[in-house]
Amino acid sequence: MHFLVDAQLPPALARWLANEGHPAEHVADHNMATASDVAIWRLAIQIGAVIVTKDEDTARLRGGAETGPQVVWIRLPNTRRVELLRWFETVLPDIEAALERGESLIEVV
């Protein structure tokens, strides 16, 4: 699974995912840290990536579209980077399973 991490989440999450064996990039790696949701959506399609976001608008975009990239919607409150990475380690197997099942929107609380 190829992941594209949105701007509300730290670049460290993309690096962590890469260390876990998943191709992963942060939107900043594409000079798109301030890009619109639609531009990020298009990039995800172009590179074949799953969007990882905290942005409810991106989740709504996924919910209203018949096609497009899978979206992992992180509903965790704002937290320190180390806590986010620790938490993500516990939920990654469930995220991977949901993506493999073909779920288009995975909401993680």
Summarize it.
The protein has one domain (3-108).
What does this structure look like?
This protein has 109 residues and is of the alpha/beta class. The chain has one domain (3-108). Helices cover 44% and strands 17% of the residues. The protein is built from 4 helices and 5 strands, in the order E-H-E-H-E-H-E-H-E. The chain has helices spanning 11-19, 37-47, 56-63, 81-100; strands at residues 3-5, 24-26, 50-53, 71-74, 105-108. Strands 2-1-3-4-5 form a 5-stranded parallel beta sheet, sandwiched between helices. Helix 4 links the parallel strand 4 (71-74) and strand 5 (105-108). It is globular. The two termini are 21 Å apart. 30% of the residues are buried.
Notable features of this structure?
single chain, 109 residues, alpha/beta, five-stranded parallel sheet, 5 strands, globular
Which ranges are low-confidence, i.e. pLDDT below 50, for 5 or more consecutive residues? none
**Helical coverage, percent range:** 40-55%
Instruction: Please report which band the strand proportion falls in: under 5%, 5-15%, 15-25%, 25-35%, 35-45% or over 45%.
Output: 15-25%
Largest sheet: 5 strands, parallel
Q: Given the helix and strand composition, which structural class is it?
A: alpha/beta
Q: How would you write the strand order of the largest sheet?
A: 2-1-3-4-5
Total domain modules: 1
Strand/helix succession:
EHEHEHEHE
Number of strands: 5
- In round numbers, the mean pLDDT is 95
